[in-house]
């Protein structure tokens, strides 16, 4: 029994050792061309608000005339109704890949005028358009608003979150499907999220190991994969490809600097050539201590203020950190921590190392 357990343990360790470190599924490295969502937008009117609408906003008046006309009600010419219970809104939604007519999708509704809140409102039936100008969905329903706004007559107000944006779960019905070419193209293209020739080559080799001769590299982002005829076979092959594990290439050495917040991010691929770093700080303090001088009794003098200034200069101890060639991320961080540098000084040091040719990484300034 012990021999069997030992054998199973060794077999398990062998399997674990065979799996590449940091292996990723192909579905996490990219996506198939055409298998993506599409953005939809529309213009509509929200009604039923408790006095928090757009009032006499011209866009609301025009929208209400259109809604009334569809319902067979014609407003008299020259009449501009007060519409504090209605608001003009922009509707946005995302049409998933392979969405079919009759399916429902979520929509987000946002005010475009002076409405204070959409809480308690209902969206009137409105079309959703794609980038090609076609109607791909119809939206309608009651809004769920996470924000709250309260105001008083004296002008004071309290706002929690954003009450001018709401969401309708399953608020739109798909009316038109988007053609993807999934069942008609002989080759499907797979696009990596990040361009890298080595990763593209590894993905090709992994696919060809399971489906011989089916994949080829077009460039650093795209692979062409020959697909079988028939939706069933294609779906089965794509499902198998997406679950194949591949070890992606190491990311390029990169230092990300956010100049506004002082945030610095260094990835593990950053290496340094031999360099010495010296960092010192000079602190100058100026203190003003005015002194009030009173005149002697019966001297007819006036009270005067005499300025007293104290200037002190402090210079932090200079330290020199020696960076050996090929220093990795942990060694870089340890050396900079030894110098006691802050985020702002760290940016200056990294830029100086880059100019000196010691920092072998790409600097990205946000």
UniProtKB/TrEMBL annotation:
Span of the signal peptide? 1-23
List UniProt keywords, sorted A-Z: Bacterial flagellum, Cell projection, Cilium, Flagellum, Periplasm, Signal
One Pfam family here:
FlgI
Highest taxon of the lineage: Bacteria
**What are the subcellular locations of this protein?**
Bacterial flagellum basal body
Say if the entry is tagged with keyword Signal. Answer: yes
**InterPro entries listed in its UniProt record:** Flag_FlgI
Q: How does it assemble?
A: The basal body constitutes a major portion of the flagellar organelle and consists of four rings (L,P,S, and M) mounted on a central rod.
Which protein family is named in the record?
A: Belongs to the FlgI family.
Q: What is this protein called?
A: Flagellar P-ring protein
């Amino acid at each position: 029994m012990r021999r069997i357990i030992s054998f199973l343990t060794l077999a398990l360790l062998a399997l674990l050792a065979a799996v590449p470190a940091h292996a990723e599924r192909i579905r996490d490295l990219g996506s198939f061309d055409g298998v993506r969502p599409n953005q939809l937008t529309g213009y509509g009117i929200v009604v039923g608000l408790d006095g928090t609408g757009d009032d006499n906003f011209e866009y609301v008046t025009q929208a209400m005339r259109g809604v009334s006309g569809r319902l067979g009600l014609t407003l008299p010419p020259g009449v501009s109704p007060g519409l504090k219970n209605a608001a003009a809104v922009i509707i946005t939604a995302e049409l998933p890949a392979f969405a079919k007519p009759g399916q429902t999708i979520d929509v987000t509704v946002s005010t475009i005028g002076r409405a204070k809140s959409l809480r308690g409102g209902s969206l009137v039936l409105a079309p959703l358009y794609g980038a090609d100008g076609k109607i791909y969905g119809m939206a309608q329903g009651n809004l769920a608003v996470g924000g709250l706004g309260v105001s008083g007559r004296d002008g004071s107000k309290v706002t929690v979150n954003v009450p001018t944006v709401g969401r309708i779960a399953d608020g739109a019905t798909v009316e038109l499907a988007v053609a993807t070419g999934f069942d008609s193209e002989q080759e499907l293209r797979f696009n990596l999220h990040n361009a890298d020739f080595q990763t593209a080559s590894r993905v090709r080799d992994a696919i060809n190991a399971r489906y011989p001769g089916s994949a080829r590299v077009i460039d650093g982002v795209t692979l062409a994969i020959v697909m079988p005829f028939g939706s069933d076979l294609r779906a089965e092959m794509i499902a198998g490809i997406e679950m194949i594990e591949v070890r992606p290439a190491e990311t390029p050495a990169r230092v990300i600097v956010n100049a506004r917040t002082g945030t610095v991010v260094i990835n593990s691929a950053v290496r340094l050539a031999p360099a010495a770093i010296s960092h010192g700080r000079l602190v100058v303090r100026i203190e003003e201590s005015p002194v009030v001088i009173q005149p002697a009794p019966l001297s007819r003098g006036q009270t005067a203020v005499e300025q007293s200034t104290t200037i002190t200069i402090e210079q932090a101890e200079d330290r020199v950190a020696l960076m050996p060639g090929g220093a990795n991320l942990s060694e870089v961080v340890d050396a900079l921590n030894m110098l006691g540098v802050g985020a702002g000084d760290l940016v200056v040091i990294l830029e100086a190392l880059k100019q000196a040719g010691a920092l072998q990484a790409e600097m990205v300034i946000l």
